[in-house]
Design brief:
The chain is an alpha/beta fold. The protein has 16 helices and twelve strands.
């Protein structure tokens, strides 16, 4: 009976955790927007910085939306080798003259996201700095209007928005969209709930997702921050190009600032989705980044030890490969020795999961043909966890 007992314990643990999460999400309240003229910070005090190599296909539409929010400036920074290509892409965006004047194009000697960010941060003039990936799509021209009220609280150092996958309209067709895009959309769909629950329960955010990070300029312009940011090493040996969003998040936590999650319809940020097997490389890069982040959070962020729920979830995340192995072995032995009980439990799991898949397909109805890819995405951690731990020293920005 050991195997069925283990399965029952895992099931009960998950149900309790789901109940806590659901209750927290239901109680979440975004920061309300101040009446016009009352907010301490307005969009014309915002510098948007965009590190880019060769621009993503959505870059031009993203640029138009950033400028539609009426920021003080948009600083695009690229390595010298990409300068001409980026300049041409900006011209192809066909921006009106009053908006072209807000775009500044800077360069660095070589491709390095952190050095590109440093160059842009030092050049930025706004009181608020917004970092965007080149494939980021904002939901409309009121994005900043809905995010900036977070900074009316002087304790808030940064604000993050929910991240969704943005599928171009011409690809929103069940005959065109790929299984890879479906898997990417499912991953984003699941992440949003976890981010909201962590904030609602403990006012915590492990990582502000890279597509859009909004910070007070005084934090990013601090010489100590810039030095640490560009001299960040894993195990003291491997210089980090990825993990920049996790570094910023951890710095804010360790310097007594708060991060606010502003989840509203008007703040849902879209990011491009990989339409090919390149998603696998991206997922492994993200998984390695997550593991390094959780390990360094336990070591470097004292505040986590005062938040039992966050501490538990962090440790759970790190030991997930071990828990997964125990779970798989329990399923196998339970099927062998108690097949009827195990089949009933499996059917219950399927029944219980159905509403989440229905909600997913309700949001992405054109992905129904590749529903199987969403299911695989839910369980791919069985392999990606192990591979990420095995390649944890890979700190490449592109692998």
């Amino acid at each position: 009976m050991a195997a069925p007992t283990i399965l029952a314990i895992f099931w009960l643990w998950a149900r309790i955790d789901d109940k806590i999460t659901a209750d927290a999400v239901s109680k979440y309240q975004p920061v309300s927007c101040s009446r016009p003229g009352l907010s301490s910070i307005t969009s014309d005090q915002v510098s948007i910085i965009v590190p880019v190599l060769y621009p993503e296909p959505t870059f031009k539409s993203g640029l138009r939306l950033w400028l539609a929010n009426n920021p003080r400036e948009v600083i695009i920074v690229t390595p010298n080798e990409c300068l001409e290509a980026v300049s041409i892409t900006i011209k192809e965006a066909n921006l009106p003259n009053d908006r072209v004047s807000k775009v500044r194009l800077l360069s660095t000697p070589m491709a390095s996201k952190r050095m590109q960010m440093k160059r842009a941060i030092e050049a930025a003039c706004g009181a608020i700095i917004v970092s965007c990936d080149d494939g980021t799509i904002w939901p409309g021209d009121t994005f900043l209007e809905n995010m900036l009220p977070c900074f009316d609280d002087p304790k808030v150092g940064a604000a993050a928005a929910p991240i969704t996958v943005s599928i171009p309209k011409e690809r929103q067709d069940d005959q065109i969209v790929t299984p890879w895009e479906t898997a990417a959309a499912r991953a984003s769909f699941l992440r949003s709930r976890g981010v909201l629950s962590a904030y609602a329960i403990a006012r915590w955010c492990w990582v502000m997702a890279g597509p859009t990070i909004i910070c007070r300029a005084e934090i990013l312009k601090d010489p100590n921050f810039l030095f640490a940011y560009t001299n960040d090493y894993w195990l003291g040996r491997y210089k980090l190009e990825p993990d920049d969003d996790t570094f910023i998040s951890r710095w804010i936590h360790t310097h007594n600032w708060e991060i606010v999650i502003q989840a509203k319809k008007e703040t849902r940020v879209g990011r491009d989705a990989k339409a090919t097997a390149a998603l696998i490389t991206q997922m492994l890069r993200w998984e390695r980044s997550s593991i390094r982040t959780f390990l360094r959070t336990l070591r470097d962020t004292p505040g986590i030890w005062r938040k039992p729920w966050v501490l538990r979830k962090t440790i759970e995340r790190l030991v997930r490969p071990i828990l997964t192995a125990i779970h798989i072995v329990a399923w196998i032995f339970s099927f062998i020795h108690n097949p009827r009980f195990t089949c009933m439990m499996l059917l219950y799991y399927i029944w219980e999961a159905a509403p989440t898949y229905a909600a997913f397909l309700g949001q992405y109805p054109y992905m129904w043909r590749h529903f199987w890819a969403a299911v695989i995405m839910d369980y791919c951690y069985v392999l990606t966890d192990v591979w990420a731990w095995a390649t944890l020293n890979n700190t490449s920005w592109t692998q």
